[in-house]
Amino acid sequence: MPDAPDRIRAAFADAGVTGRLHAVDIDSDAQLDVEADQPVCTASVHKLCLLVALHELAASGRLDLTEQVECPPGDRAPGPTGLAAMLDTARLSLRDLAYLMMAVSDNAAADLLLARVGLDAVNRTTDRLGLDATRAVESFGAMLAGVKQDAGPAGARALADPHVIARLRALDPARSNRSTPRDMTRLLRAVWRDEACTPEHGAAIRRIMGLQVWPHRLASGFPFDDVHVSGKTGSLPTLRNEVGVVEYPDGGRYAVAVFTRTASTAATLPVADAVIGTAARIAVDALRSR
Description:
Order of helices and strands: HEEEHEEHHHHHEHHEEEH
């Protein structure tokens, strides 16, 4: 285990990313740290905090997860998946919006939920769980609008320019939704130990996280039929993140949070995606070898 952090740093360097990681055995105090207390921009990873806040409100009776929400096409937060990519009016329950938010990282679904839950409630939930470095400051639509504004009149083409990337507020933890890898594994551990919500609602959160469709980051490090990976990705220009839980058939459960940033502005960098799985596998193997 002592050489695992160095192996993870080497993997990050080989992939051309700056990386931060925290991994913890959910059922013991064993953990592994690679700059785990450095502030990071969460991007869509922060949807996990919203999901937990949603279920906390439901558990207290302040909202009903079967409540129906009208989802008109106008003014939806942009994105390539789910409601964000749809053209017509839809009507969905809060819990089905939560599914879209987590399984395909639907920004429009997330902002409809956030309008119902509120930023203050999300922050009260993370405060209650002791996530002192975690803060939601804006909606996902506002975050993307800020990227568009900061990019200027050239639009998406400008995001290939490192000078433009450097001025994006969404990439500055002091001005965007933020956390640390350690805070995120603390949140995951609380969800898996039924300390974040009642057991019924904890099970619902775990179910939704297990339905994420993206296999190219965290899950890529665990290509086994009997190992289950539940996660939530987050992406912005130069940022690729994922937090999740890896569960082995022998009962081992490991929360992992990996946040990376590349110097390259390319939108497609398979090696940068894959190193999230590589680093997580090194960390989990080290924890299992203790």
